[in-house]
Amino acid sequence: METPNYNVAIVRSFIHWSILWGVVAILVGVLISFQLVYPNLNLPPYLTYGRLRPLHTNAGIFGWAIGSFFALYLYMVQRLCRRPLWSDGLARFQLYLFNFTIIVAAVTLLMGFTQSKEYHELEWPVDILVVVLWVVFSVNVLMTIFKRKEQQMYVSLWFMAASLIGVAILYLVNSAAIPVSLFKSYSAYAGANDANVQWWYGHNAVAMVLTLPPLAIFYYFLPKSTGVAIYSHRLSIVAFWSLVFMYLWTGAHHLLWTPIPDWVQTLAMAFSIMLIAPSWGSVINGYLSMNGQWHQMRENYLVKFLILGITFYGLQTLQGPLQAVRSFSAFIHYTEWVPGHVHMGALGWVSLVLFAAFYYLAPRIYGRELYSIPLANLHFWLVLLGQLIYSVSMWIAGVQQAGMWHAIGPDGSLAYSFVESLIEMYPYYWVRAFSGVIYVAGVAVFIYNLAMTARRGKPLTAATA
Amino acid sequence: MFGSWEIKPSVFLALATLAILVGTVVTMVLPFAWINTEGDRIEGVTPYNPLELAGRDVYIREGCNNCHTQTIRPLVAEVLRYGDYSRAGEFVHDRPHLWGSRRTGPDLARIGGKYPDAWHYQHMADPTVFVPRSNMPAYAFLNNRQVDPDLTRRKMEILRFPYEVEQISALRGKTEMDAIVAYMQKLGTGVERTEVAATLASPTTDKNPFGDDPQALKEGADLYRQHCAACHGADLQGGIGPELATPGRDDADLFQVIFHGIIEGGMPSYATLGQERVWKMVGYIQSRQE
Description:
The structure holds 2 protein chains of 2 kinds. Chain A is mostly helical. Chain A is 72% helix and 2% strand. Chain A has a domain at 1-188: Cytochrome c oxidase-like, subunit I domain (Cytochrome C Oxidase, Chain A, Up-down Bundle). A two-stranded antiparallel sheet of chain A has the order 1-2. In chain A, β1 and β2 (184-187) form a beta hairpin. Chain A is globular, with a radius of gyration of 22 Å. Chain B is built from 12 helices and no strands. Chain B has helices at residues 9-29, 50-61, 76-82, 117-125, 149-159, 165-169, 176-186, 196-199, 214-227, 229-232, 251-260, 275-289. The interface between A and B is large, with 95 and 91 residues.
């Protein structure tokens, strides 16, 4: 059978740039984790925690995660549709615009131009760049799907297409604002309404940006890596529809105990708990796909990344709904528990799946065999260790912090002042900073391995190509 | 069993959009009918004046909301620590909201009027002066930056906030530090301050139950360093607040001042520390006067 002339160059470029932005994200992350222990590391006005933290999250979510999804969507869509990209020129333009947007975003955030909405900090001119970027990307992917040569639409395409629409709706609604000057605007919504719209966006960005795309990637690369089909196509489709339907109800679980209407909070809590089912639909599908293949966990390093990744997704989607229960939220919300949870998703679930996909692609984008599988294993253990130390230390810290905040003496007085609870956090902050260094070391091994593959890897033989 | 629609991308996209919109309409669009309505209105909550608005934008620019929340939840410990829980009507002029999601530092929803201006100026310039182990960055550079009156006027007009021309001209020469302090002092002042002390048991004795207990004096000294020294000086010599080194009040009087605070004078209530710890501070202060 004739192989269509797939565009591999654009995939390679996006991979390189997303890795670069990922490195920026974790280095800034390590810096701000040290700032929490050593306030003197804050260098005002540009390099303070308050300005760097949004840079960290934006570089992580938009530079590393979305940049990688760009690479992998453009790779997967060609193969799943059995035809080249609808427009190579548009994809090239998307690459330039992506990097330009990320650079503008980083500079403006450091200069203090921010809407202050979490994960949607960029001011209105940068918002417009993001919207153009997304339209260009969506048109190219959707047109490729419309003009496909393959009759069936594999489930990864469903996840991909839904994320394109979901992100567009969320981003447009939440960014509505009235400009005052080139880099200052005021939200179109006020007070409690603004908060409700913001967390409808904030939580569902996790769905549309950090759940659907990694699942699309997981459903594609797990069978590719194991050589065995996914356990159930039907289960993945049922899980898809219930996930897409239920997620949008849950944003207000970030606003439990705040002055938004009780019924909104209660609905958010109920749907958050129900969300366990569709999330675990995909987890179980992943595990059952390993039936009779578990020996590959030992022999195939790609499977290790993917299965640990989906395991963290499973843990994440148990922890998330529990955090959405009002009594649990009363205790751990606003504490260090939350970054512990978020980083299990970011460093565990999303990044492990991305690492697997990139290793899988390395021979295909460089035309050479992977330089070193032992190094890939070392990378695996370093990032796993770093992420676990991070999350576990922050969970413990969060529980201790909450315990101190809520402790009340027999006469009704508060047992601890706020600063006493902060002082107790310093050892945990050290552990966190240290775990970040371990994670960085893992990523350094990853980059070294890819670079050596490109330069020194054994050229592929015809059989593996 | 799925029929042929599942291979039609246009049908699929329409269905996916529909699925996304159901929850969106119910939990995000509908609440507009319930929030910021007449029923939410609170008499004392007013729009920001030009200096306060400029300060709010400095707060946004510096990302203060990354560490400080501005919502007090209706939970016992939280109301004790920060004051009465937040109401929707308090935020009707806030674009955007600044509720935040993490507390590396304390909540600021009701910080307004709790401390005198001088406290805020010094604390912003160098937080470790008052809280030696604070990890808040120093914001002294705000002293060197001027507020832009023209830009602020434009902001007031876009937000439709009422202002006097004199208020805009009065901005000339004001620093961003002046602005952010003005904003701090505005926070939470739209509702009447409830005295937390009133919700706690009143003192049952006029006499210091610890007497000259040396252990209690030592604890009192620690508490003084942590809670009082910033305003009254490490050696009780005074500073932002009056000096305490000269005898003046009896035990019961001093206890009342610390326990209830002098709200209009910028002295916060320390009732939430509990009677025992307040008595220990009383004991320490009295011991230093003799």
